[in-house]
């Protein structure tokens, strides 16, 4: 079996065993190209009929190479499923050493991504999004599906009196916007992921909308972003609602935002994934496209704006994509998978780095409060807190290089509560240092956008407010 053991130039000070997916993948692909092993294509079909295709060199599928091929393709499919989404996967290729290699790899993946397999969470999540079981098939390379991507315009409407909101796992934000000018914004703490009663969600969101509406003469439109997957304003799945039993989810949560729209007189009301609005906020702020936005909050949100300024039908749930390939990587509490984004770029990451940083906080202290304590220590010059941010910065530098393999990125927007204060500057400075020394070609083509403090915490609500278009003769909701 080929030996793949990259040596990072940078070791995260509090997590030195971190094995960057970017370096491992680069090393594998270099070996595969030199070996003449062949080409493998992974096609993913989504519910709207759109198709993404990712091609990669692969080692000869024979002998001990089978194991390393399985490792590489399983992690690659994991990334693609959470970046682009899909209910049907087709593995096709011409593999040296084994004419039936694509079929064998598909059979292996079917076992892993099955209701009883190691990636049962991914299988079930996909089924909830697309309403059908995840299928994995194989085909000859010349029979591989052709790419068929779709994209649509998103937001950028700032006329009239609008409310924007953003729902995170530890707080909900709202803003009142009058003809493009923010006249009010705030955030309110909440804890939705442990609430089994969907009325908690409705009441909390409704309260934030009323708070913002109090600063407007009327409400012409409402736009929102939230963690999870949303299709035509319908909630398909999300960590915010994980405590809600499935039958209750289907009857109350799935149509939650239609119920809220009705409560506000039927005004234009649009809700999309929070990552998409993160990317939109960056595009609006920069006046440029080809942007990837990531928000480090309770978990990791992400979104992508194409070179044309549109969004795709991809799901961009980068909280679940692999970023660390070591065998004993930290395990995500929800998906049960090791080495995925949420454990490296979120309040969860800060929480797990407290022990190696020798910062003792009560186990039952909520993650947002732990982050606040670390931020206070950082502001006071505590070197232990600085090491947490330096560690996350190394994670980010290597992972930006991974993202660049899958996205056409020109602009990178990074925000969220983890990025607030001096710690956010340390993260970006370290990430930039890693990129320039390990991946100079990536560093040259990516421009960072570092939002100001208000934009970091409330930029998404402003962009969210721009989502709905106000049609002529549209009914507004009077504020009483």
Description of the structure:
There is one protein chain. The mean pLDDT is 92. The strands form six sheets. A five-stranded mixed β-sheet has the order 8-7-6-10-13, sandwiched between helices. A four-stranded mixed β-sheet has the order 2-1-3-4. It has helices at residues 21-35, 65-83, 101-112, 120-130, 198-213, 246-253, 256-263, 274-286, 347-353, 367-379, 383-406, 422-438, 440-445, 453-465, and strands spanning 38-45, 51-57, 88-95, 135-139, 151-153, 161-167, 171-178, 181-189, 218-219, 221-226, 229-231, 234-237, 269-273, 291-296, 300-305, 310-312, 411-415, 447-449, 477-478. Strand 6 (161-167) and strand 7 form a beta hairpin. It starts with 20 loop residues before the first helix and ends with a strand. Helix 9 packs across helix 10 and helix 10 packs across helix 11 (383-406). Helices cover 38% and strands 21% of the residues.
Which helices and strands occur, and which strands form pairs?
Layout: H1 21-35, E1 38-45, E2 51-57, H2 65-83, E3 88-95, H3 101-112, H4 120-130, E4 135-139, E5 151-153, E6 161-167, E7 171-178, E8 181-189, H5 198-213, E9 218-219, E10 221-226, E11 229-231, E12 234-237, H6 246-253, H7 256-263, E13 269-273, H8 274-286, E14 291-296, E15 300-305, E16 310-312, H9 347-353, H10 367-379, H11 383-406, E17 411-415, H12 422-438, H13 440-445, E18 447-449, H14 453-465, E19 477-478
Parallel strand pairs: 3-4, 6-10, 10-13, 14-17, 17-18
Antiparallel strand pairs: 1-2, 1-3, 5-16, 6-7, 7-8, 9-19, 11-12, 14-15
Helix pairs in contact: 2-3, 8-14, 9-10, 10-11, 11-12
């Amino acid at each position: 079996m080929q030996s793949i053991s990259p040596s990072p130039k940078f070791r995260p000070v509090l997590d030195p065993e971190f094995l960057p997916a970017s370096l491992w993948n680069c090393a594998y692909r270099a070996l595969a190209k030199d070996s003449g092993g062949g080409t493998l294509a992974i096609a993913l079909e989504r519910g709207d009929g759109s198709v993404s295709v990712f091609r990669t060199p692969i080692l000869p599928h024979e002998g001990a190479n089978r194991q390393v091929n399985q490792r590489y393709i399983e992690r690659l499919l994991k990334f693609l499923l959470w970046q682009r989404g899909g209910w049907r996967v087709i593995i096709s290729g011409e593999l040296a050493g084994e004419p039936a290699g694509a079929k064998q790899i598909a059979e292996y993946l079917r076992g892993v991504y099955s209701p009883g397999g190691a990636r049962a969470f991914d299988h079930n999540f996909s089924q909830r999004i697309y309403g059908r079981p995840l299928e994995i098939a194989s085909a000859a390379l010349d029979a591989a599906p052709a790419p068929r991507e779709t994209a649509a315009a998103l937001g950028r409407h700032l006329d009239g009196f609008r409310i924007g909101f953003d729902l995170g796992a530890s707080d909900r934000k709202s803003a009142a916007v009058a003809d493009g000018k923010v006249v009010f914004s705030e955030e309110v703490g909440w804890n939705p992921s442990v609430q089994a009663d969907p009325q908690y969600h409705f009441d909390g969101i409704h309260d934030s909308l009323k708070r913002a509406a109090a600063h407007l003469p009327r409400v012409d439109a409402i736009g929102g972003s939230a963690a999870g997957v949303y299709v035509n304003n319908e909630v398909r799945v999300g960590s915010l609602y994980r405590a809600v039993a499935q039958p209750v989810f289907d009857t109350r949560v799935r149509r939650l935002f239609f119920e809220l729209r009705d409560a506000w007189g039927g005004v234009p009301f649009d809700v999309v994934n929070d990552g998409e609005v993160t990317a939109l906020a960056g595009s609006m702020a920069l006046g440029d496209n080809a942007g990837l936005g990531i928000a480090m909050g309770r978990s990791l949100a992400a979104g992508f704006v194409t070179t044309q300024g549109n969004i795709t039908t991809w799901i961009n749930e980068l909280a679940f994509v692999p970023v660390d390939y070591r065998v004993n990587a930290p395990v995500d509490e929800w998906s049960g998978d090791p080495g995925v984004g949420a454990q490296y770029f979120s309040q969860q990451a800060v929480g797990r780095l407290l022990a190696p940083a020798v910062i003792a906080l009560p186990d039952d202290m909520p993650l947002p409060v732990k982050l606040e304590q670390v931020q206070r220590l950082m502001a006071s010059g505590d070197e232990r807190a600085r090491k947490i941010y330096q560690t996350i910065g190394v994670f980010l530098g290597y992972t930006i290089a991974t993202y660049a393999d899958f996205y056409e990125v020109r602009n990178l927007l990074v925000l969220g509560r983890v990025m607030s204060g001096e710690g956010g500057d340390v993260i970006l400075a370290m990430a930039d240092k890693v990129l320039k020394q390990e991946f100079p070609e990536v560093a040259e083509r990516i421009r960072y956008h570092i939002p100001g403090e208000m934009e970091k915490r409330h930029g998404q609500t402003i962009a969210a407010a721009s989502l709905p278009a106000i049609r002529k003769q549209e009914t507004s909701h009077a504020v009483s």
